[in-house]
Design brief:
Length: 174
């Protein structure tokens, strides 16, 4: 279920980006030739948003260094795995798209088993636990960031995901 939510996140963001590239007007005027609207800003490296030490603290056990899974202009993802190869992971995804994409991702998550608004992270954030992962999505400037703490249960997982999201949001320059 968590993987489906992340897949939906990626599909919604990419679909919105493609649709947004088509016919001018982004609410703030049409960009000039060769310019992208602000909501299509190139994303930063996801490995710069969470440190190995923070991932280790979130999981409560040593993690391997950040493993970048992909980096494209408008979407990037990375993960930290448990150093002992037992279950435990932190995943970080970042995508361009701004408020419209955040709202679409939030709509997809609303109604899941555990869902709650989160304050103090970016411009807007929510927590969701669609299955076993504790996940926080937040909006920071033109970026939607998704942080997942996997295979940690109960309230500590939610607290860890929120803490990681706060730390990541502070590192994103807008």
């Amino acid at each position: 279920m968590a993987r489906r939510l992340r897949a939906a996140f990626i599909a919604v963001v990419i679909g919105g980006l493609v649709a947004g590239c088509g016919g001018g007007g982004n609410g703030g005027g049409t960009p000039g030739p060769g310019e992208l609207p602000p909501e299509l800003a190139a994303v930063p490296d996801p490995c710069t948003l969470v440190t190995t030490e923070e991932a280790t603290a979130a999981l409560g056990k040593q993690t391997k260094d950040c493993d970048k899974l992909g980096q494209e202009d408008f979407h990037a993802s990375a993960r930290f795995l448990s150093a002992d190869d037992n279950p435990g992971s932190i995943e970080v995804q970042i995508a361009s798209g701004g408020r419209a994409e955040y709202d679409r991702v939030k709509q997809e998550a609303t109604g899941k088993k555990e869902f709650a608004e989160v304050s103090g992270v970016g411009e807007a954030a929510f927590f969701v636990r669609p299955f076993v992962d504790a996940e926080v999505a937040f909006l920071r400037g033109p970026y939607v960031v998704f942080i997942s703490v996997g295979f940690v249960t109960g309230p500590p997982a939610q607290a860890a995901a929120v803490t990681l999201a706060q730390q990541a949001a502070a590192r994103i320059a807008v």
